[in-house]
Amino acid sequence: MTDVSIDRPLPERADVLVIGAGASGSVAVTELAKNGFSVVCLEQGGWTRTDEFTGDKPEWELSRQKQWHPNPNVRQRPSDYPISTDESDVNPLMFSGVGGSTILYAAHWCRFLPSDFQVKTMDGVAEDWPFTYEDLLPFYEEMDRQMGVSGLADNPAYPEGEAFPLPPLPIGKYGKKAAEGMNKLGWHWWPGANSIPSREYEHRPQCLRYGACLTGCPAGAKASTDLSHWPKALDAGAQVVTGARVREITVNDEGLATGATYIDRDGVERHQRAGIVIIAANGVGTPRLLLLSKSPQHPDGLANSSGLVGRNLMMHPYAAVVGTYEENLESWLGPAGQSIESMEFYETDKSRGFVRGAKWNVMPTGGPLGMRAGYGGAPIDETFGENFHKNVKAVLGRSFEWGIIAEDLPDHENRVVLDPELTDSDGIPAPKLIYKSSENTSKLIDFHVDRAVEAHQAAGAATISVTKLMRDCGWHLMGTARMGEDPKSSVVNQWGMAHDCPNLMVIDGSVFPTSAGVNPTATIMANALRSVRHLIENRADQVVAE
Amino acid sequence: MLTDTQRATYSALADVLIPEAEEMPSASQADVPMVWIDKALEYRPDLRDAFVKALETCEGQDPANALEWLNKNDTPTFDALGVLTSGSYFLNPEIKERIGYPGQQPVPAKDDSDTYLDLLSVVVERGPIFRPTVG
């Protein structure tokens, strides 16, 4: 499918133009269409049919290293744009298409904690958010219902709130093994919340535990927004143009956003007018587009008078501590997805020599090939020969991962810029990432890895292996168009409206002032809902371009 | 399609990578060079050029020595050969059965909270561990 609105002409001028059909864009389009706005969404990728995913097919483990790899530089689909990463410690991961990166995300569904919104107040670093956990709570709870989240209430790591709409997914033998270790140490753990239905939910079937969440759910169970939101958005009258690669957001003489110029898959340049423009293109795509949109009114890029567009990139360095066990834990079974999580070391304890913390999550380790990628350069007999068989017997089904999501504090020098040479297939300058993990992060990871090793030891692991920084871990793209009340130190206000352009909104992870130490999709979507509801409620006073 | 010469070269290389050992068959005993490599190349056409390059590099040489050279001097090509060989081996249903991997089968999620609620009770008893909002 290339254009679902082909049977209905696009409006000459839409009330709202949304750029990006992923997690946050899906929320905006659905809410606006339900409330009577004419909405057009431009999406550079296409639709993905459930039967395209390989998680239920023999080729799964081979295809996940290429066709379904989360790194667009590896995947290299026509819809992907290249990203220069020569100066980055971490590779950014994403997917272009209706549903965006929720197509390939792990669906860990985690709220930020109260302290995450008050990092400056509580820990004296970075910035506070312009609102609190309590302000966002009703939107978190509504988003739980929209996505169909499975989880167990009363987690002592969080304030009280509504129960999840669905009971928790099974934690499996490996989750129980991990929990036993945590109990020996007296450390916190809790069954993981996932945006994966444990029972049939709004026409999506229950989870079938393929363990293939990260390559797209072959059961159509996981809440990717092409399934959770887009059917409702289209029913409400929204239109999406797929294969539409946006080159520039256009402005009028007053500097208001008037729409966007895009290139369709026939190579034809088109323009869509709109009264309001919302950007939802992720923490790399959004600053790229703002920087591309230079004009006499916005000479340094759109909404960039602060010089902060692209700055403060945060990507959550991720460490993995894998333990192997004597018994068969069936650790190929999903969800993947998180089985259990721990927030034991999440809050700041300055005696550790660093601030902030990390969520831990237990994840399965997949099939026999997954553990065998990328061994080039090591002696052959370490991974092949007789050890090929020994390793499979030792690890397959008998291992699980404690993953550590390290809070990434904002750093002005970590940034997205336009690459001076690299372009996408339409000749549009590609983004370049300049990103170094900080000393605080290194200390944080060292501490957490040591504790995770202890957790595996307590659970009885036979062997333990550590990866302190996975290069392909940049799922969480945040901070590059930060929100705040001061136009000199932020790009958008707390409702996502650009300080420099009062009819331009940003609603993806770009607006996060800080990153927290948990998976951000729940917060991205809850924040998008809060922002777009504010827009709808204040529509009478909203500035628009004619 | 691979030529007979390519298959012969590959068969020798594949058996160095995956020999008969630990009560498991070698790559050639598992039909990797004659059957499953073709499926793997179908699934990963992007690796075909590197695979062919590996065979050309190693043809006529002692397979173990040739692989050592390739691993040290042309890692991407060795990696392609390794991934395709491992992937081909695990495509064989008999191999999956012998290693006890029933993966990629639907297993409807069932609530297993009855197996861990006793473990969780001590976590609950310890009480809240978050810092509440200030002000």
Describe this protein's structure:
The complex is a heterodimer of chains A (546) and B (135). With 546 residues, chain A is α/β, with parallel strands linked by helices. Helix content of chain A is 23%, strand content 18%. In chain A, strands 1, 2, 5, 6, 7, 8, 16 and 17 form an eight-stranded mixed β-sheet that branches. Chain A has a six-stranded antiparallel β-sheet with strand order 4-10-11-12-9-15, covered by helices on one side. The longest helix of chain A has 21 residues. By secondary structure, chain B is an all-alpha fold. Chain B has one domain. Chain B is 59% helix and 0% strand. Chain B is built from seven helices and no strands. In chain B, helix 2 crosses helix 5, helix 3 packs across helix 5 and helix 4 packs across helix 5. Chains A and B meet through helix 2, helix 6, strand 4 and helix 11 of A and helix 2, helix 4, helix 5 and helix 7 of B.
CATH superfamily membership of the largest domain in chain A, which one?
A: FAD/NAD(P)-binding domain
Determine the N-to-C terminus distance of chain A.
32 Å
Quaternary form: heterodimer
Shape of chain A: globular
Report the sheet-strand fraction of chain B.
Answer: under 5%
The helix/strand order of chain A is EHEHHEHHHEHHEEEEHEEEHHEEEHEEEH
The parts of chain A where pLDDT drops under 50 for at least 5 residues are none
Supply the helix-strand structural class of chain A.
alpha/beta
**Rg of chain A, please?**
22 Å
Q: Care to count the β-strands of chain A?
A: 17
How many separate structural domains of chain B?
Answer: 1
Which structural class is indicated by helix and strand composition of chain B? mainly alpha
| Major beta-sheet overview of chain A | 8 strands, mixed
What do the pLDDT scores of chain B average to? Answer: 97
Q: Percent of residues of chain A in beta strands? A: 15-25%
Number of helices of chain B: 7
H and E order of chain B: HHHHHHH
Number of strands of chain B: 0
Distance between the termini of chain B: 71 Å
Low-confidence stretches of chain B: none
